[in-house]
Amino acid sequence: MPQPWISKKEKTKMRNRRRKKEKLGGREEVSTKKRKRDVDATSNEVPTSENLEPIQKDTNHDVTIPSTATNKEKGKLRKEARRKSRKEGRDENLLKFVDENGDEYIEEISKKEETGGKTESNINDESMHTNEFPPKKKKSKRVFPNINQLLAEAEVAKKVEEEEKKRKKYEDSISEEEKAKYVALDCEMVGIGAGGKQSALARVSVTDWNDNVIIDTFVQVPDRVTDFRTWVSGVRAKDIKMTNRNAMELNACRRKVGEILKNKILVGHSLKNDFAALMLDHPKSEIRDTAKYKPLMRATGKGGGKLRPRKLRDLVKEYIGLEIQKEGEAHTSVEDSQATMRLYKAVRDKWEKECAKAAAEKSGRKRR
After folding, report:
1. What CA–CA distance (Å, rounded) separates 351 from 289?
2. How distant is the alpha carbon of residue 81 from its chain centre?
3. How confident is the model over 54-103, as pLDDT tens digits?
4. Would you state the torsion angle of the CA atoms of residues 264, 184, 199, 277, taken in this order, to the nearest 10 degrees?
5. pTM beyond 0.85
6. Helix, strand, or coil here: 140?
7. 3-state DSSP helix/strand/coil percent for the chain, to nearest 5?
8. Which of 75, 129, 229, 346 has most Cβ atoms within 10 angstroms of its Cβ?
9. Strand 265-268 vs strand 287-289: parallel, antiparallel, or unpaired?
């Protein structure tokens, strides 16, 4: 019969077990599971209960502790008895410690045994780190700003300051009569119809050149509102109820706004939506829509030729350093109209020159 193949790993394990057995003086130390593995590795025979020796169970679990021994010696004797019981395969919990008279011995647990071998100093150290003395917080490292970043921020601030001075000087050169021609408009809408996709006018704000409010009112919505868009519009149900006297009736609001816009140059952002909600129109030559002015738009597409409108928040931040429509805050139509007017002022000089040039070209073509 050919010998079974044994791997190098199994041979090394067998060699180590044999050496350990020789070192212990021939005592049986290998457990039942280890002996099974040895039998499986050395032969093809399946081990049975007849091949393995059963673990002898000692019915006498009494261990005598001499009364003359010190506490330290008694502790050592108890540990030795438990260790021996585990080595022989017996349950150490069944051990019963008795004195010389056969009475049950009451163990005197020393402080060291009670604390699991920890000394008094170690216990004191642990108590300091628990309830009485909490651990000291580590000092966080100071983070110093990058010098390049500071220089860049200083340069931007300086540029904004210079632009502000130029803008102020330019505004001072404009007459009050000219300034009175300009008004800024912004509206807030709510959703009506299925899914709230259709917009209805809910608030109107009109401001002048100097940020003074000409009109700011909520508008009664006769239709059933399916989406108040409060997180964007800031409009609540009570603001536009038909019973709210502070909210204007829709037709009255339209007439009032129409009178204000008459013979005025209207400034706004995406005015198409505001006109749709107001159901009004305005002469094209008197509209200054910051969403459609090419220098304020962004180029998209493969060739970068297609222009798209940018968000008012981004434009205002870039051109005049003003933050509006902050994250988590609802929009305010008054703030948006004022910001749009300020944005227009920043580019007015160039914009009006382009408008004048376009008007001259148009009139020249008509004459021909």
Report:
1. 11
2. 59
3. 333 344 567 777 777 788 887 888 888 888 888 887 777 777 777 777 77
4. -10
5. no
6. coil
7. 45, 15, 40
8. 346
9. parallel
